[in-house]
């Protein structure tokens, strides 16, 4: 059982790079590739175990209480200086000028972009709805091949420079990880099986929407890639995942081939990675892409609004499967837009990926 936070939520340890990717890298014959990924796997496993086994004893960050202040982000950035003690040394607070460290500045901007999307598109003040301060730590550990949200803050590694680059370079990664916090404070989806894959998919959806909103892209203009820019030049691939075409993000002699399924026909049954949460998330990811592109325009407006409605509406069970989530999106479309193009597009998107809505 996951530990319960003082808020009554169950924080989980969520990383952007799935364990199966790091496991594949750790088996490389090249020690420059295997070493950093093996150490990252071990570090992640230890932190994940602590998160699952230990009672949360840290005092949660106090949300902003001033109504005016809660309409503005409250960001604090720290530098771990290649150590693992969190949060590290404070290097930039809200409103301060950019530093000489590009990682700090990118993380600061990404936290702000996520806050802005939630506020401007959905009227939500930070991930908890009450102006929760956003904390980020950069330069975590040595050649750490991941970024994560631990229930309380964001943490970014620098990558090994061989396979992964600095994890602050992809704004959708920042949006992805912070959305785990949004989920934690709302539907609180359990991190296993289909509910865990929905948890991951929610983060990919809103991570992509943060990027699209920041760039001013329509659904047709977006690349629908998660983590574009993270892979080093030597890697044969474009990103960690593709929402448009799950299973095509990379095909590399070291990383292997992207194993994500795009429909229920290829659903992966496994006990690894909490029941394949990073694999099977490709199915609801593609459903969202199909919906957003069918509706056209800005994906955060109609398609994103429906997903947000379901995530925050109070009817999504913590152990929800794909079908129950799909039915709620259909109901949300009818509730918000009536029996129009939106509801029809939602039904068609889920049908195309093989998830029943009846």
Globally, the shape reads globular
As laid out across the biggest beta sheet, the strand order is 1-5-6-4-2-3
* Strand percent estimate: 5-15%
Helix tally equals 10
Q: Helicity level, as a percent range?
A: 40-55%
Order of helices and strands: EHHEEHEEEHHEEEEHHHHH
Radius of gyration: 19 Å
- Give the structural class: alpha+beta
Q: State the end-to-end distance.
A: 32 Å
Mean pLDDT: 92
Uncertain runs with pLDDT below 50, 5 residues or more? Answer: 1-8, 53-67
The major sheet is characterized as: 6 strands, mixed
- DSSP strand tally: 10
Give the topology.
Layout: E1 14-15, H1 19-26, H2 31-53, E2 75-79, E3 89-93, H3 102-122, E4 134-138, E5 147-149, E6 154-156, H4 171-185, H5 193-215, E7 225-226, E8 241-242, E9 251-252, E10 256-257, H6 273-280, H7 282-295, H8 303-312, H9 322-337, H10 341-352
Parallel strand pairs: 2-4, 4-6
Antiparallel strand pairs: 1-5, 2-3, 5-6, 7-8, 9-10
Can you describe what's shown?
There is one protein chain. The protein has ten helices and ten strands. With 358 residues, it is α+β, with helices and mostly antiparallel strands. Strands 1-5-6-4-2-3 form a six-stranded mixed beta sheet, with helices on one face. A two-stranded antiparallel sheet has the order 7-8. Strands 9-10 form a two-stranded antiparallel ribbon. The two termini are 32 Å apart. The relative contact order is 0.11. The N terminus is likely disordered.
């Amino acid at each position: 059982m996951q530990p319960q936070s003082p808020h009554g939520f169950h924080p989980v340890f969520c990383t952007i790079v799935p364990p199966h990717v790091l496991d594949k890298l750790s088996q490389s014959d090249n020690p420059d590739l295997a070493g950093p990924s093996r150490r990252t796997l071990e570090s992640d496993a230890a932190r994940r175990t602590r998160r699952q086994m230990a009672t949360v004893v840290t005092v949660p960050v106090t949300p902003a209480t001033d109504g005016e202040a809660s309409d503005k982000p409250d960001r604090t950035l720290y530098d771990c200086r290649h150590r693992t003690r969190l949060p590290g040394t404070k290097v930039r607070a809200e409103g301060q000028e950019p530093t000489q460290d590009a990682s700090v500045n990118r993380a600061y901007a990404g936290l702000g972009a996520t806050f802005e999307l939630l506020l401007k598109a959905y009227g939500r003040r930070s991930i908890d709805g009450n102006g929760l301060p956003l904390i980020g730590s950069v330069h975590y550990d040595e050649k750490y091949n991941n970024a994560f949200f631990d229930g309380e803050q964001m943490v970014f590694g620098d990558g090994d420079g061989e396979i992964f680059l600095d994890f602050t370079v992809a704004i959708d990664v920042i949006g992805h990880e912070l959305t785990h916090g949004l989920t934690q404070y709302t539907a609180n989806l359990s991190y296993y099986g289909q509910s865990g894959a929905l948890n991951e998919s929610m983060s990919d959806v809103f991570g992509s929407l943060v990027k699209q909103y920041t760039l001013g892209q329509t659904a047709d203009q977006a690349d629908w890639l998660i983590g574009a820019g993270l892979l080093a030049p030597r890697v044969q691939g474009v990103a960690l995942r593709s929402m448009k075409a799950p299973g095509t993000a990379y095909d590399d002699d070291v990383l292997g081939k992207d194993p994500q399924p795009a429909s229920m026909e290829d659903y992966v049954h496994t006990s690894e990675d909490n029941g394949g949460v990073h694999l099977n998330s490709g199915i609801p990811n593609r459903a969202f892409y199909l919906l957003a592109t069918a509706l056209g325009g800005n994906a955060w407006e109609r398609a994103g609004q429906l997903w947000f409605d379901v995530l925050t509406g109070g009817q999504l069970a913590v152990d929800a499967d794909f079908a129950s989530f799909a039915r709620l999106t259909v109901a949300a479309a009818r509730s918000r837009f009536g029996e129009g193009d939106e509801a029809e597009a939602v039904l068609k998107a889920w049908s195309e990926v093989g998830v029943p809505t009846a």
